[in-house]
Specification:
This protein has 4 helices and no strands. With 77 residues, it is mainly α. The protein starts with a helix and ends with a helix. The model has no long low-confidence stretch (mean pLDDT 96).
């Protein structure tokens, strides 16, 4: 079964609700890409990596509002 963009968006929003912490959310996304690598399309993997690299430096970070908007955009695309 494929892991969908919509499911990723819902889970990302839940992670944000659990407390906005760039390092924790970045690590969550990284582990998600590893744990579900067989279920993720190349396009979705690219989107997950955008979140996973937030911890690599301020130039990659999203604000909380930006990350929520990113998740919202995933749900409707």
């Amino acid at each position: 079964m494929r892991y969908s963009k919509e499911k990723f968006a819902r889970e990302l929003k839940q992670e944000i609700r659990n407390g906005f912490d760039v390092s924790r959310i970045s690590q969550w996304a990284y582990m998600l890409s590893i744990d579900r690598h067989r279920e993720i399309s190349p396009e979705l993997d690219r989107l997950i990596q955008i979140v996973a690299v937030m911890d690599e430096g301020p130039e990659f970070e999203f604000s909380e509002d930006e990350l929520v908007q990113f998740a919202n955009d995933l749900e409707i695309s």
